[in-house]
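Justification of computing resources. Each target in the renewal requires a structure prediction run like the one illustrated here; the chain below, 292 residues long, is used simply to show the kind of job we budget for.
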Amino acid sequence: MSTFRSAVAAYEKKCIEADVPSETVMCYLVELSQQERYALYMNFENEMPEALQKKFDEGMARILSQEPMGHVLGYSWFYGYKFIVNENVLIPREETEELCAQILARMDRIFTEQDSIECADVGTGSADIAITLCKEEKKVRMHATDISEEALTVARQNAVNNEADIDFMAGDMLKPLIERNIKLDVLACNPPYIPAEEKMEHSVVDYEPHVALFGGDDGLKFYRQVFRDCRQIMKPKSFMAFEMGYDQRERMSVLVQEMLPDTSFEILKDMNGKDRMLFVYFGCSSINDMND
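Resulting structure tokens:
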């Protein structure tokens, strides 16, 4: 039997050798043991219970083979909410939490006088964005679309688990919204934006759905699709919010100016200083403009 300390140290070394972030070890142990991190540290010199040791060894073997921790656990945390994840949906990322926070801030400033905010999450996947916005802003009436029925099965269960009232629709990007003549105050979208030929980590390519990753030759295929059709569903005063690739600022700016010349837009940096969020405004201004 190993102590908590020796087991963690041994797997941290193995993670470094396998090119897996060493902090994964403690993150996985915290979830597996259902203890707070400080409680684990208080027992670090104690022997790990046999049943926990067995599960820990089995799970770490999968993680060391590059399988994502979310798949090993069967769930992932996002904005304080627990989401089922599997091979049919993209595992929620921390960067997308920032996108949600920025959307919520703009809802507060732009739609202060409104009693309700009509919102859609396009390409919802696990429904992480849809559920977060729905739970964090009580004015939101949320729609969510995805082309994958398998993804929608996961999304619907996540909505039930998190007690979120969401109108799910199957279909390609904006098509279900257009067909139902839905008009939006806010469109949120984290589309596939990785160029088709870009090299990716095995933990991503081998385990996460390609339909949620790759956005055509230049990564902008689905932005073009949304920009082309968005006027059919966006209200005169509304905005769209997207996650984007950190290296797409110049191409994205040109694309917005070409396809939506009468809108205003801004590209925001994430906590790491990378360009990761695009906001496009119809008949309203960004938070920065309103503060001037």
